[in-house]
Amino acid sequence: MSVPTPTTATTPGAARLHAAFARAAQQGRAAFIPFMTAGYPTAEGFPAVADALLARADILEVGIPYSDPLGDGPTIQRASEQALGGGTSTRHTLRLVRDLRARHDTPIVIMTYVNPIYAVGPREFMRLAQEAGVDGLILPDLPPDQDLEIADLAAEHGIAVTFLIAPTSTPERVKLVAEACTGFLYAVSVTGVTGAREGSALGEVPAMLALARQYARVPVAVGFGVNDAQTAHQVAQVADGVVVGSAFINAVRNGQDVGALAASIADGCHKG
């Protein structure tokens, strides 16, 4: 399975993201995209966790802590609450990303709901994100047909945008979302919120991805429910990228070796 060659004009951030997917594909694997909430477990402890993930990541996803994360399960919700309680704000998140960028060349994307962007101001947020070296934004609660300002401002500042589809998305919705993505398309493997689950991580994913690839001009990554090398391997057979989040937050909370878990899951992302 080859990663699609984007036909849309790319921003610098999009070009870096697409290159990361292409490198992984050339190596016979899906891109490994770990997630961590900014400021978790503490603002001081976050950089070491992020460094451990970046040692194996093709792309790092950093979540802005938010008080009402409707798409996140209890694990990430608790992490956001703890990070917010420790003083990690939207601006602080971008400073943390700037510090990571000074040490790593791996692409970094920010996952955020729209309210934190509006709280800072969309143009100011994009300016700060560009200065921090953010390559892309994952926008789980922004319908691409309802608010073009954020996507337009992101492009103006060299930042790619990613929207989400789910098994419940209609073909019309999949087409709309797929064509709006400039970074990658994020396919949610299950209906519901984030979090590790028992059993197969595939479910309706193959059919959803077959539909998405009719319209997507960017790579397609799958997340929600991937928690170990086995589930990552299942997803890697059909996706261009594998997103893993709650498993790493649980590992931090339980005092486990995040780097070892990242290495194991990254190894599971090989195809075949």
TrEMBL record:
Its EC number is 4.2.1.20. The keyword Amino-acid biosynthesis applies. SUPFAM superfamilies: Ribulose-phoshate binding barrel (SSF51366). It comes from the Bacteria. HAMAP family: Trp_synth_alpha (MF_00131). PANTHER family: TRYPTOPHAN SYNTHASE ALPHA CHAIN, CHLOROPLASTIC, TRYPTOPHAN SYNTHASE, ALPHA CHAIN. Belongs to the TrpA family. This is Tryptophan synthase alpha chain. It comes from Deinococcus depolymerans.
